[in-house]
Amino acid sequence: MIVNYVKKLLIFFCLAACARMTTLAETKPNILFIALDDMNDWTHLFDENNPIHTPNLQRLASRGMFFENAYCASPACSPSRAAVMTGRAPHKSGIGGNGAAWAKKVPDAEVIPRWFLKHGKYDTRAGGKIFHHGKGGDDPPGKPSFQKVDHLHKHAGKPELNYNGYTKGRLRGSGFDWGEHNVDMHCDDYTVEWGSKIMHEEWKEGMTPQFLALGIFRPHLPFWAPSRFFEKYPANEKLILPPMLENDFNDIPEIGIKMTLKEGFFQDTILDQKDYSVGSNEQLVRCYQAASTFADDFIGRILDELDKTGQADNTIIVLWSDHGYHLGDKNCFVKFTLWEKANHVPFIVVAPGITKPGSRCTAPVSLLDIYPTLVELARLPANPKNDGVSLVPLLKDPQTKWERPALMTFQKGNHAIKTRDYRYIRYNDGSEELYAHADNWNHTNLVGNPEYTSVLEGHRILMDGVLE
Ligand SMILES: [Ca+2]
């Protein structure tokens, strides 16, 4: 009796699974493409011992695959986003810093949504920050990246950008402020409202498949969030601060130290005063934590809206952050470094019928891999100019053998690779760093340690290989 019941149950689940797979196989899936800005790995998504609460990132991860070791192609907004969207590696495209305009560097590039429009007849939509704002993010003349766009900068001047006067930590005006900020509409509220409206009006039975990109600007500076997002982050000694090693720069080459000075306005007042008042650096860390949970909340709202459309089973979701952020660790508040915290990012893919809910993958992967992965998932022809590789084998089986390292580049000739066991950095003057995987705050440079001579040599060869 019980055996029969179990058999029936198994048949039911098989049929249900087949029905799901049939759905994705017979119709073109929608793509919900969500970008975060400057969100690092110090969140519950990666480890529940981390201080930053991200219930909605975890909710999203529970639906598909979370890549624990995903890396941006470049630790700055413009080159990282250009790499994701064009599929071109920064060392080949020449887009290695925030100053380069992607449309001028690679005018022949077909960005992901254009590939979907051209080869899959997709409708393409984008709200918020997808490319970097400013001229570096502009489309090439006559080649719009999306059919319909709601730009983030359209909302400049709205209440969110009215700086509210925390002068102590202020650096260059409201763009670099941090604090509690209670206004009706933050810039991401506009983006989520716009995206929700698109889904509400256009995502229906029989719809044209759609590529919808939504770019959330938080936790990027200004580190602002409404007061309720600060409740979990105490403004006193109980606040969790990143570990800071004394003399952390003693084993860092000069060129690596120089990179931290890129936004070098905090160096004299680094977290040594234990000052939790408004505008202090400790308060800045607290505000980053709150701004990250605020960003996470927007993700929850997007998922709620998707679920209301009834299209979730036919929608591939990809979520990524353009890079990470240092919060006083390694003596800096900055992203423009080749260390782990500025490059290790949240990256989640939900592909119904393909990814197993709640699965995790430990292989090192790059955000450059997003383009070829989405193209394969949607069964469109591959773009031969993509420098990344499709992650579909890993989405199907996270244990797939995967020896390819993730490559990161910042400006000209400065690179890092991440393998399963090490991070190896080589700057354009030839100086190097090597860190064990477990040393994720990059406290101990192993270059010069005779025990690691062969590891170092192996990583030099690997880097030469991926740069070819
Ligand atoms: Ca960014």
Outline, from the CA principal axes?
Answer: globular
- Based on CA atoms alone, the radius of gyration comes out at 22 Å
CATH topology: Alkaline Phosphatase, subunit A
List ligands, each type once: calcium ion
Q: Outline the biggest β-sheet.
A: 8 strands, mixed
Order of helices and strands: HEHEEHHHHEEEHEEHHEHEEEEHHEEEEH
Task: Give the strand tally.
Answer: 17
Mean pLDDT: 89
CATH superfamily: Alkaline Phosphatase, subunit A
Number of domains: 1
Estimated helix fraction:
25-40%
**Distance N to C terminus:** 63 Å
Structural class: alpha/beta
Question: What is the count of helical runs?
Answer: 13
Low-confidence stretches: 9-25, 162-171
The first-level CATH class is given as Alpha Beta
Per CATH, which architecture? 3-Layer(aba) Sandwich
The strands making up the biggest β-sheet line up spatially as 5-4-7-1-9-11-2-12
Strand content: 15-25%
Q: Could you outline the blueprint of secondary structure elements for this entry?
A:
Layout: H1 2-26, E1 30-37, H2 55-61, E2 65-67, E3 70-71, H3 77-86, H4 90-93, H5 102-105, H6 112-120, E4 123-128, E5 148-151, E6 178-180, H7 187-202, E7 210-219, E8 223-225, H8 254-260, H9 281-309, E9 315-321, H10 340-343, E10 344-345, E11 347-350, E12 359-361, E13 365-366, H11 370-377, H12 392-396, E14 406-409, E15 415-418, E16 422-426, E17 432-436, H13 453-467
Helix pairs in contact: 2-9, 7-9
The structure holds calcium ion.
Calcium ion binds next to loops.
